[in-house]
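Researcher: Structure prediction, please.
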Amino acid sequence: MPPHVTLSPARFAEAFPFHIAFDRELRLIQTGRTMLKLDATMVPGSAISGHLRIHRPEVSMGFGPLTERPESLFLLEHLRTGLTLRGQVMLLDDGDGAVFLGSPWFTDPKALDEFGLGVDDFAIHDPVVDLLQLLQAQKIALADQRRLAETLTRQRSELRDANRRLGEQNDALARASVKLRAQEAETRKLALVAARTDNAVIITDPKGRVEWVNEGCTRLTGYTLDELRGRTPGSVLQSEETDPATVETIRERLRRQEGFSVEIANRAKDGRAYWVAIEMQPIHDERGQLVNFMAVESDITQRRQAQRRLALQYTVTNVLASASRARDALPLVEKICEALDMRIGSFWEMRSGRCTYLWCPPELRGGAMERACADFRYDLDLPHLQPLARGEPLWIDDLGRMPAFRRREAAVQDGLRAGFALPIQLDGRTIAVLEFAGRVAERSSETMMQVLRSTCDQLSDFAARMRDRRELQRLTDEFEAIFSLSPNGLVAFHQGGYTIANQAMRDLTGFEPEALRAVNEEAFDAMMSALCAADTPWVALSQAGEGDTQVFRLTHPRRRVLARSVRAMHSHGTEIGRIVFLRDITHETEVDRMKSEFLSTAAHELRTPMASIHGFSELLLARDFDDETRRELLETIHKQSSLLVSLVNDLLDLARIEARGGKDFRPKAQPLLPILREAVGSLMVPGDPRKVMLDTSEDSAQAEVDAERLNQAIVNLLSNAYKYSPGGGAIRMTIRQRDDDAGRWVGIAVSDEGIGMSPEQIERLFERFYRADPSGTIPGTGLGMPLVKEITELMGGRVEVRSALGRGTEVTLWLPACASAPQPESAPKPRSAPKPRARRTPTRSRKTDKR
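Model: Predicted structure follows.
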């Protein structure tokens, strides 16, 4: 591990004279020496709010708001003096305190005197000192220039007066001569000042041609007086990087003989680009005639570079901070171009090597560089692009002089000179490159390269943040899909104080998910307890163990049987809440109940014939009977064995329907009346003299059916009609027809005048193993009506039941009619039959009843 660099408190105070250290209670720990000079009351232990207030950003004075923004720039106002401090707040390593590192924000050197500060009160490394010195030097130079211009004007006026009075008075001539010599001495002093100043001073004739320059001009431009004399400064110093609008402003002011102040880009004799601030003043003689122009030029190159660096940092930080998606950061290309005076900016995706976004001003749209970027493929394996592959920014001083730059000709054609590229890395790999080019060929400073490296880090951090956000969104979407689509009711209680529930929870309990958001476990226990039956009370969640299952019955909003389990939720090994699962097991419970009931019924039905068969066969084996008695016994054995076979066949039919899935079904178009007659003729009900009343008025009705399966279904219906009308009454079978939106239908209705059914019994009529008469007095297994329903639906139809207790039952099989069937004249339209479903072939039934 490299050694830590540490500073003693005294050294730290010397290096940062305006620093302010404070603890979490916002009480001062340590204050810089200059701050103590400004305010001796800023001693350790005093509250920071009694000395400072936050001017920007707009946050409250608290430890959290101050330390949560290490990248933010803070402006603090000293309450006693009104001094504005500019800097950043950094959290100390132990997290128990923070320190504000900054310096005063001055725009005028006079402010030093107002606050009683001198250069020694600042740190040596503080750029404010250089800025103040630069501003002071400029003000001194400008003041000197103004005094020089005023002195020259005054001298000329005095010389004119002296010459006019020369012929009139000899003594006036002597006095004028003395004054002239004094003025010349003063002029030499001013010239000496102009020669020794760091600023460039240029004096031209009325036409703008150079007459005199000082040594500062030679140091700045590289040109001597002999090289400039008789030439206009613009013709020598201006280049293609010079702003034409600024040049036109200078020419217009010169034509109008007016002073002006401008900032302009020039080029020195050695090819170096630099920026100057020009202060130009006209000089007139005593008659008001223009005789000279005097310009004072200050080198502002470093100031411009500092402004560009600050603009770049601000632009990148501001755009990336407000971007929530990758595409939101694309305007950064244009913003960087504006901040650094670049003419074209582009975004390159390294996966394809293509430019996916390009910005340029209107005059460059469709130009050579834009076309070259559209056809170019970025390759980081090229030697001159290796820094980008390593994550380092790349600066090119002059694109036109770099042979390895493949778009060099296009850049030259569009007048582009200097350029730079910023790599965006993710997991140590460059995934994209931002590329910029401008019209000014310039060398990059180490300070600018540091800013560019910092920008690369910001862009890479943004890419990682977007990657993590996409992954988080993917996981969130998957969780929400699973959570919302789960058939089980889910409710999660977080220790943070909020609750989430899915739609299935509402379907099971009637509780809206939004209403559960502010409900804790205790309140949820109370809500569920109100829904549970008394014999299965709700067990509080606090008493539920991990993985334990509780089964309970709900009385409302609907009667259900639910199974509950509870699981803990963990994050990084710490429990963050619990999730409750509610599973609807009503169907499974009912199936278990019906199976138990069926087994009881089936065992009874099997035991009765088996007992008869076993008893009578045992008698035949043990004794000899006459022929008539033996025959009666054998007939009884045969009858009971037939009942046993019928019961077993019903079970096998239901099993085959589920296993075969209708593969044995053989439908064809055929008339229905012959099938009905065959079913009536094959039905034998011992001991019941009633005959089925068959209505043959619709003898032409046809449907596409399997005759054998339809016969099986009708026999089941007729058998039920006989068994469930033990008191007698007519049994009728009728053919009906009707039309609805789904087409034409043919109905086979079987009705009786028997015991009938209640609405609750009708609702469960087609459940397997269910019997409307569980007493056992009417034989049956509860499988007949499910077989009827299955056969009918396999042929594309549906079953319709109408019944009332004590008034009988009517069951209608509605089947799709064939096209050849005649139109019905008038038919009632109860509920329409469903669209035909995939046909499956049922197996044979043995008159097994459902009611």
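Model: Confidence is low (pLDDT under 50) at residues 821-851.
Researcher: Thanks, that helps.
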